[in-house]
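User: Predict the structure for this protein chain, please.
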Amino acid sequence: MNKFVVVLCTVDNLESAKKIARIVVEERLAACANIMQGLSSIYHWKGEIVEDSECLLILKTKATLFEVLKNKILEIHPYEVPEIISLGIDNGFDKYLDWIKENTL
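Assistant: Here is the predicted structure, written as structure tokens:
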């Protein structure tokens, strides 16, 4: 199992992205949160094809914190069914991975 993960989470706007990012970093559930603006998302929702502008949160954390992080995001996320997915980090710069470890619970 990977020791560290990148968690991807789309949100409706920059305000929501910053709110979630600040909370999860302050609570040390993620060491870092990057926010990418200007995404165009096209998806199925309730029988229709929807196109929206979104922001993408890229969170770096320990794999063991994923469930706690996911539950915290679910508490504050504005969507009914938010994207919250975890991708394992197979390799990385050791000092950066150590930094993630030192800055999370």
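Residues 14-26 form the longest helix (13 residues).
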